[in-house]
Predict the structure.
Amino acid sequence: MAQVFGGAFVIKPTNPELLLATVSATLGEPAPPEGAQAADRESVELLVQPIARLLRRVAERSAQLEVARTALDLEIKKRIWAEHDLVHANRRLHDQAMRDPVTGVYNRAFLEESLARERVRAQRHGHTFAVMMIEVEHFREFNDTLGHTAGDAILRSVGQCVVSLSRAEDLVARYDGGEFALVMANAPRQIVRQRAELIRQRARSLEIGHNDPHLGPITLSVGVAIFPEDGASTQAVLEAADRALISSRRSGRNVVAMEEVSAGASS
């Protein structure tokens, strides 16, 4: 096999001395004439120009892709923000649907849903829960005499009072008219009674401003029942708490009454 060095051919396998001589002779050859150099440059330019155009097109396409990528990233972020806002809006709507518009505490529908879940949880783990029915005494008279604005002010103040004296895991709801309900999970009967007494006492010290005079003193009747001791279903324990509330009224009002265990034992 022959290999070309300059204009010389070297036969393989070659003699090292012959190869060195051939390389030396090639290096010693005179430079090609100027015309040949120009032709070579022209040939190089003909080869380089398409490559340069290709590189420019690659750069332009890369720039276009970068713009498109940036726009896509922005669109993705916008959609993520929109989805985030939608989720929060849905949560707010759901929360508003579950809350009483006057007091801001939960409403009766949410209370009943929560009691159903609490009953299942209590039965599964062998826990108890208490239902406390809290009635603002003479609420209808406040409404009829001073108007609904005054009545709403009383409800908001009492609702905030009950919330402030509740544990983080407790649930406070407006049950009906001037009645509130407090659900306390896994709390001993004595602790529940102490909490009910504290709420009753604190309500008497509320100063509720309406126009110029202060409304009050506000007094509460409170009835308490415990699941499953006083009722073996959510409906039964609510009825037991309501019976205890009626007992509180009959005892002269502004007192806490607890359902007798034997009275509400059936479902």
Summary: The two ends are 108 Å apart (CA to CA). The helical segments are 16-27, 34-97, 108-125, 139-146, 148-164, 189-204, 234-250. The beta strands are 2-5, 8-11, 129-136, 171-176, 179-185, 208-209, 214-215, 220-227, 256-258. Confidence is low (pLDDT under 50) at residues 262-267.
